[in-house]
Amino acid sequence: MSDYRSTVGQRLPLIDSMEKVSGQGTYIEDMSFPDMLYARMVRSSESHAVVEQVDFAAAAEIEGYVAGLAPGEAGTGIHFGVLPISEDETPLPAPKALHSGCIVAAVAAESERAAREAALRVEVRYSVLDPVVRPRDALRETDHPLHPTTVAGTNLHKAVDQEFGDVDGAFAEAATVASGEFRFDGINHGFTEPIGCIAVPEANGRMSLYSATQVPHYLHRALAKVLEMPMHRIRVFKPLVGGGFGGKSDPFPHEMVAALLARKTGRPVKIIFDRDEVFLNHHGRHPTEYRIRVAADGDGRLLGLDSHSRIDGGAWGSFGVVTTYYNGVLSQGPYRIPAFRYSGRRVYTNKPASGAMRGHGAVNARFALETCLDEVAEQLRLDPFDLRAQNALPPNTTTLNHLRITSTGFLECLQQVRERSGWERKFRQLPHGRGIGLGCGFYISGSALPIHRTRTPQSTVHVKIDVDGGVTIHSMAADIGQGSDTMLAQCVAEAMGVSMDRCRVFARDTDTAPLDLGSYSSRVTFMAGNAALRAGEAIRRKLHKACARLTGLRADDFLRGANETYVHRDDDSVRVPYADALREALADNGALIAKGIYRAPKLGGSFKGSGAGLSPSYSYQAFVAEVEVDEETGQVRVDKVWAAHDCGKALNRLAVEGQIEGSVHMGLGQALSEQLVFLNNGQLQNGSLLDYKIPAPPDTPEIEAIVVESNDPEGPLGAKECGEGALAPIIPAVANAIHDAVGVRMHEVPMTPERVFKALEKKRRAEEKLRAGS
Amino acid sequence: MQVPDFILRQPATLQEAITAAQEASRPPDGSHAPSAPEQGYDWLGGGTDLLCNYKWRINQRPVVIALRGVAELQSDVAGSLAAGRTLWQLENDAEIQRRYPALASTAALVASPLIRRSATLGGNLHLDTRCWHFNQTAEWRAAHRSCLKAEADQCRVLPDPGDVCVAAYCGDLAPVLIAYGAVARLHGPDGERRVPLAEYFAGDGIRRFAERRRAELMVAVEMPADAEDWRVNYRKLRLRQTFDFPEGGVAVGLQWESGNPGVIAAARIATTAYASVPLLHPEVVELLQGQLLDQDLADRAGALLESLVQPMKNTSMSPSYRRKMARVLCRRALLDCSPHSSS
Question: Hey, is A772 helix, strand or coil?
Fold first, then answer.
C-alpha cells in the first residue's frame, strides 16, 4: 500500500515568492545589454489623422540621439494582431493615427534622458480627420472608416446574432419579465509593472525580444510576420512579469517598434512605458451598453433570455471578436435557459483599443443578468438564492449553445455563502441603509479552441532529470504573477512523487520551451497542468522500470510512497528510494527526458460562432456582499464579502484564496470607482493612478474566500480555473446589496457616489410625486 | 518617468535659503532689477507634490531649494508649528492631538501614510492648484493645447476666462488652520512678518498669494493663544479613503458663549477645493453667530454654503455633486462640534 502524502490542497508559497520579495527577481526593467539604446515613443496629438510627415531634425540635435523610426519605413506598416481574423494593428500608422496618444514614431538614444528630450522635439505633420468617439456614431456610414475591413462602410467591426429556442414564445407566456439598459465605463487592468521590452539583435542575425508578456507564442508569431523572418530566427524571452490581467496578452506595436529600431541600429533597444502610456496602450475592458430581458414563469423557472450588447472596441481589433461572442454565450450558465437570443455589435472608435481583461467578455453581461434575476426574485417574492438554485444547470449536461457541462459545484457555492453570510437573518431585514446582496458567476476554464487552426497541442511540457536529482521543467506557460510556475512544479512533483523543491521551472524562453499558448482565457492550470502531470507521469514510468530492474518485480506494480520512495503495490516493505531508482535509470542511458501534452477534446455544435465559449470545463461562483450606503452622499462602503468559488480542486489553497481575494478586490474597483474618462475628441482624461481610482487597502473589505471543490473529471488532479471567474460576481452582489439597503437599482457601473446619489434623488422625487398625487 | 534636470540648493540656515532664492531670481545678466517672485526657483519641502509635477514637466524651475536641512524650519518655538514638520508628525504628536485635535486628524486625511512621512506643513499649505487640464503629462497637454497655467494661452474649463485661472486649491490643512485662526510667519530678505492665514491666500489658480515677496518663505504657523477654546472640525469629500485630494472640504470653528455651551459666540468657516484659494464664508458665519447649534441651524448653514460655493468642472467629480456635498460636509462638520458630539 502506498503511504504517499500528496501536496494537493496544501498552502504552498509560490516558488518565486522569495525571489520577488527580496528584490532579486529579474523584471524587464532590471535587464540591460551592452551598447543598449533607450527608445521613447512619439505619440499622436490627434485622435484621427493621416500622418503626413515626421521630422527628426530638432530631435537629432539632442546629444545622444541615435535614430528615429517613422511611418513608411520597412516593417512599420505590416499588419499583425492576436487574432488572425482581425490583424489590424501596425507598428506605426499606415498611414493613420487612430487615437490621441497612439504611437506615431519613435526615437532611440544613448540614454533614457536623451530619448525623452529627443521625442519631445520630433515634429509631426498631420492631415486631421473627424474622429468617431461615441459607439452609436460608429454604426453610421462614413467616408473614413478606421479600417478597410469594417462592415458596409461603417465602423462596425463585428456583429454576432444568435438565437436558440422559442424566445418570443418564452416572453409571451412569461409570468414576469425583468429588463434593463445598462452602461459600463471602460476600465484598465491596473497591473503593477508597466509594460516594457528589450529587442536584441544577435550576432548571428537572429532577433531576441525580451518582453513582459502573457503570450510569448503569439508575440513570436507577430514578430515573425512584421520582421519578415522565419520563426526559428526569432527568440522570445519572458522575464518575471508584474501582473497582466489580460493587459499583456496581445502582441503590441511597441514590441514591433523595439525590434525594428534594433534592426535599424544594430543595437539592443529598450522601451519601458510610463504609467500614462500603459493607459494609452490599454486593451482593457470594453465600454459597454447592454440591453437585457429575462422571462420567468410564476414559480421562478427561467424561460428565456434576450440580450443585446454594444461594445466600444477603440482603435483596434485585439480580442474583440471573442469579446463580442462572450458577452452573449457566457450567459448560458450557471442557469438552464431554454430560450436564448443575443446580438452583439463591436465598433471601432478613435480611442485606445479595448481587449481582454480578467473575466474577459463575461463581466458586464453577468452584471446585467444577475441584477435582473434579483428583480425577478423580488417580483415573485422569492428568495434570490432559491431562484438561482432552482434554475441551476445540473452536472453532465449540455446548454442550448452546446457548451458541455461536466462538474459543477454551483449549488454548494450557493449553500456555503448563504450559511456563512447569515443571509436568512439579514436579507430584507437589515436597518435602512444597510443591505446584503447575491451575485453568481460562470466562467470558462480555458478556451477549447486554439486561436490558430492547428492540430498542435495547446500545451506541451518537457521534464528532464539527471544525476543531480533535480527536476527541470520546460514550458512556455507564462507566469504573470498568478503562480503558474508553482503549479507546474507541483503537478510534476506530484506525478513523480518527489518533493517540489527538486523542481526548477524554465517557462520563459521560446528557444528551449515547448509550445504553450500562454496565459489567457484562464487556461493554464487546466491545460498546462494536465500536460505537466502527464510529463511527470511519463518520467515516473521510466523510474518504475528502473525499480523493476532493481527488484525483479513488475514496473506497473510500483506506486508513489512516502519520503520520495517508490513502493510496491502489494508489499510496502519493498521500497526503492527515488535516488536509487534515478541512478539505475540513468545507467547506460544518461539524462531522462519526457513530455506531456494537452489538447482539448472536440466540443461544440456546427452553427456559426459555435466555437465561442467552448471549454473543457467551467468554474462556478456565488458571492454575497454586505454594504452600507450613505444616503446623503451616495457613498457605498462594502463591509464584508463572502466569496465561494468552485475551482474543481484547490491544488494550492493559498494560491486559490489569493486569486479569489484579488478578483474581489479588482471587481470592487470596477463596481465602485474605476472608470476611464474621455474628452469629447476621444483623448483619455485620467491616465494616471491618482485619477484612475483603484481601491486602496482602506477601501477593501474583509473577504472570506470559500473554496468549493467539485473534482473535475478532466482537470489536473480535479482542478479547474480560479483566476478569472471570481471577478464578475462581486459587482452584481454589491448592486443587489445596494438595492437591499436603499431600494435603488443601479444600471451604471462603476456605481460611484455621484451615481448612487442621483439614483436616490430620482427615487425621492418619484416618491414625493406619488405622495403629492395620492 | 524622470525628473528633468535642475540645480539643487541645500541650504543649512534660513539666511542661506533666502540668499539662494535671491540668487536664483536674479536675472542672468547680473543686474539687480527685481523679477517676478518664484520665477527662477521653487522651494522644496517633502517634494511629494512638486517633484511629481516636475516629472510631468509642469512649470519646472531651473533652481530647486531644498528646505529639509534648514534648522529654523524643523523645530517649533512656543505657540507655533515649524513649516518643516511632516504631516506624519502633525498626525502623531501627542501635544498636537491634545491641543489642536482637528489639525492632527486632518493631517491623517492627507494623501497616504507613505506620502505623509515626507510631506510637510509648509509644503501642504503651498500646494500648487490642480486642474484636470493642467495635471497631465507634457505630451497630453501638447495634444490638448490648453491651460493658462501651463504652456497655452487658453483655458478649457472656462469658455472665456480672460487671464483668470480656475485651477482648484486642494490643500486639506489650510481651512483647518484658518478655522483655528492661525497666522503665517514669513521670512524674507527684509526680515520677518506675520500674515493671518485667512488673508494669506488670494488671487487665482496662478497668482495664489496676497503679498508674497521675492525670496520669502513660510517659517512657521503660529497658533493663537485661544486656539484651544475653539471646537474645530473638518469634513473631506473624496472617492477613496486614502490617496485622493479633496473634491470638497469644509472646516468649521466654533466658540461657545461663555457658560453657555452650544450657543455660538464666534464662528469661522473655510472651504477648500471649491476655488483657487481656500475660501472664507462670512455669510455662513453671520447666520451662525449668537445661535444655538442644532440640527435645523446646521441644515440652514449647509444650504447656505451650498449656494455660495462655485466649483468648476476640472476635477473628477461633477461641480453639481461637489456643490451639493458642501451642504452635507458643512452640516456634519457643524454637528460634530456640538457639545454632545463625541468628536
Answer: helix
